[in-house]
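Q: Please design a sequence for this.
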């Protein structure tokens, strides 16, 4: 009976290690984050505003830092390479045909910028799965 408990315990530990490996291998991490500074020079708050950006995606794609279809781009208000730590993840649209150019047109949705102030958001890309161990 003692030998059966020992075998069960060993199998249980091996199962727990395999489960932890599977979970942690799906932990997302971005490789690069770029600061984007936006100014609202109006006397009114911009609430729920769509922000138009023109960004060079051709360079990071040619360097192998970004996916060729721009699908690994994310926008956030928190500087962190780990999406699980972000306060806000902005929805966005890359205009069709503009990815992998020097002037990729992107609209970030639902941005709020207070009157006469600056808003900093971060464009992160280079999505990777991380194995912690």
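A: Design:
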């Amino acid at each position: 009976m003692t030998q059966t408990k020992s075998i069960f315990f060993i199998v249980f530990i091996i199962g727990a290690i395999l489960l932890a490996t599977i979970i942690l291998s799906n932990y997302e991490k971005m490789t690069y984050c770029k600061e984007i500074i936006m100014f609202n020079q109006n006397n009114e708050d911009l609430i729920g505003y769509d922000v138009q950006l023109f960004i060079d995606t051709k360079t990071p794609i040619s360097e192998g830092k970004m996916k060729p279809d721009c699908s690994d781009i994310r926008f956030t208000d928190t500087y962190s390479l780990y999406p699980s730590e972000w306060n806000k993840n902005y929805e966005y649209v890359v205009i069709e045909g503009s990815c992998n150019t020097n002037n990729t047109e992107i609209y970030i949705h639902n941005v709020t910028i207070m009157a006469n102030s600056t808003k900093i958001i971060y464009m992160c890309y280079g999505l990777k799965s991380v194995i912690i161990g």
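Q: Thanks. Anything notable?
A: Confidence is low (pLDDT under 50) at residues 5-26. Strands lie at 27-29, 32-40, 46-55, 74-76, 89-90, 92-94, 104-113, 117-125, 128-130.
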